[in-house]
Design brief:
Strands 1, 2, 3, 4, 5 and 6 form a 6-stranded mixed sheet that branches. Helix content is 46%, strand content 22%. It has 8 helices and 6 strands; from the N terminus they run E-H-H-H-E-E-E-H-E-E-H-H-H-H. Helix 1 packs antiparallel against helix 4 and helix 4 packs across helix 5. It is of the alpha/beta class. The protein is globular, with a radius of gyration of 17 Å. It has one domain: Lambda Exonuclease, Chain A. The chain binds iron/sulfur cluster.
């Protein structure tokens, strides 16, 4: 496969969770609805019915090689604010990077600077302001570059966190424990 032209925003999150996971999703289309994804999708649908926001705003950037749907876009006193909704009670760096990518795409699309986004957590019904820093922006660019250079012939290594593997939707394809033993042999 040639170099990937456009990276989907949600793939940034997948890659930062585990590059090997994105490899399976991208090249083998092994995405399946495990309990964690199913739960998150149901919550998204419920939240959407409350209305009042711009939802699922599609944006694409030739410059950033990025595209995707921004979960929610709010207008807060004339200021544009992207919102990403997450299941669970906490968030991680990959969620911050995904939110920064939303902000960067909207900036280019609207021609205005976006300095803040929000992460909404269903588990606590709270939302958290996130500053869209230069380091997050750099991480977006670096991650896009890393994803674009992925190739079917080069599978990334295993992740070091067994808790991530336990929740991973491609666990049955990756078989991290069995495959690691076989690769070492
Ligand atoms: S099972 Fe673990 S090593 Fe394999 S793709 Fe998922 S997170 Fe990565």
């Amino acid at each position: 496969m040639d170099e990937i032209e456009y990276v989907n925003i949600s793939d940034l999150n997948q890659f930062l969770y585990c590059p090997r996971r994105l490899y399976y999703l991208m090249f083998y289309q092994t995405q399946e609805i495990n309990v964690h994804l199913a739960d998150g999708r149901g919550l998204h649908a419920y939240q959407g019915r409350r209305g009042g926001w711009y939802r699922e705003v599609y944006v694409k950037s030739d410059r950033l090689h990025l595209h995707g749907r921004v979960d929610l876009v709010e207008q807060d006193n004339g200021v544009t604010v992207p919102v990403e909704r997450k299941r669970g009670t906490s968030y991680y760096e990959n969620d911050l990077v995904q939110l920064a990518a939303y902000a960067m795409l909207l900036e280019e699309h609207l021609g205005e600077r976006i300095t803040t986004g929000y992460l909404y957590l269903y588990g606590t019904n709270t939302r958290h302001p996130v500053e869209i820093t230069d380091s997050l922006r750099l991480k977006v660019v670096e991650t896009v570059d890393a994803i674009r250079s992925m190739h079917v012939s080069s599978i990334p290594g295993f992740c070091d966190n067994p808790r991530k593997c336990a929740k991973c939707s491609v666990f049955v394809y990756c078989m991290p424990y069995e495959a690691r033993i076989l690769e070492e042999a």
